[in-house]
Design brief:
The protein has 4 domains: 133 residues, Rossmann fold, CATH 3.40.50; 163 residues, 3-Layer(aba) Sandwich (Rossmann fold), CATH 3.40.50.300; 82 residues, Orthogonal Bundle (Helicase, Ruva Protein, domain 3); 55 residues. The strands form 5 sheets. A 5-stranded parallel sheet has the order 2-1-3-4-5, with helices on both faces. A 5-stranded parallel sheet has the order 7-10-13-6-14. Strand 11 and strand 12 form a beta hairpin. 50% of the residues lie in helices and 13% in strands. The protein is elongated and about 95 Å long. Helix 6 packs across helix 7 and helix 17 packs across helix 18. It is of the alpha/beta class.
Amino acid sequence: MNRSVGILLVDDEKDFAVGMARLIGRQYPEERIKAVHSGEEALAELQRDYYGLMLTDLNMPGMDGVSLLTAAKDAHPELSVVMLTAYGTVAKAVDALKIGAYDFLTKPVESGELFQVIQRGLERSSLLRDNARLQEMVEQYCGPNELVGDSYAIRRLKDGVAAVAESDYTVLIRGESGTGKELVARTIHKMSKRRNKPMLTVNCPAIPDQLLESELFGHVKGAFTGADRDRKGIFASANGGTLLLDEIGDISPGIQTKLLRALQEGEIRPVGSSKTIPVDVRILASTNQPLEDKIKDNSFREDLYYRLNVLNLNVPALRERSEDIAMLTHHFLESACDEMKISPKEITPDAVACLVAKPWPGNVRELQNFIRRLAVFSPSDTIELAHIRLVEGLDGVPESGAQGLAPYKDAKEKVVDDFTRAYVEELLTQAHGNVSEAARRSGLSRVALQKILKRLEIDAVMFK
């Protein structure tokens, strides 16, 4: 990936501009540097190519630095602008800071100070560009399907959701706690032909057994003590729509029997009634338990299992899709700022790398709650590594690597490997497993791509 930010120099003194470009080029040989000599040329260059950092003289004939700053920031809000000014016009440069300049330097420019300002400007621009790229990916890959991520595991899940949404068959959604099983269920409903009908959820373990039957099927007046009127159950309330039975593995054998009958017959019998009521409900069920083991110890009916497991989806744990953590982080941070009605916050690459390296036993739910705490306890508009340490301290988590935090180098390598794996898998998917075609599309040589495949143990044949 090309990490060059691009530096544009603007000064009507051509010798000064050319000399500055050479000086910066020796310090930052990887950066693309361009020198122009008027505000008009600068705006034209910004239209032609991407630049993250612009250093411009304040006093120039025609369009001066302040006018250029205003026009450039209107067209490119993410651009970092550094003003170059003589000592006599420092006050004017300070005014420029108030309308959006990132920093200013006085002429003659001292190289050490110049490089410090450029380094900070490059980091800011790179951060803003990464944030914008990740936001585009969030918008691209969420769409009507709210499952955030672009890893191979999440793409398979999205494909599965799209496939099962087309039918009315029962779906069993499996996965660890906090992986987003309820979100998967809601996405299925939103993409189904029942989307304009209600979707209701029953949290099975949260309701005592003696009340769960009434909650599901309703009851008639006098059915039990306190039943002073007829009550419609959730099956009847969801008629025509979708019903999610959350954590289905926790219901008792007695309720299992009555639920099986409702699924088989398409009708329910309210508690205390002798009459049945037909219902048209699409059933989704979720569980974090191995139902096959519960069948063996006779705590879950085998016939109910097969009635529920017509179609099934497995929601991956966060450790199986760690390359999605960066995208999830930006998505949750934006959501948290919206929820608190505060201005958007950014997060530095080092902080993201730290989050990627952390273990998340609570999966996506734990990550989301951690990001919410970061948004609350970070006083500035940029979340840095120190803020993560602060929140860990508030949570009672040791700041050392005892919790599985890898060294920076290892964490960075993991982020790169995760990106490379996701990129190559998508590349092979588009090229239908043809390595030569994949190499052509990526701009890599065939040998280089084969080395990457070997290192990551990716078999191109699996994508044919």
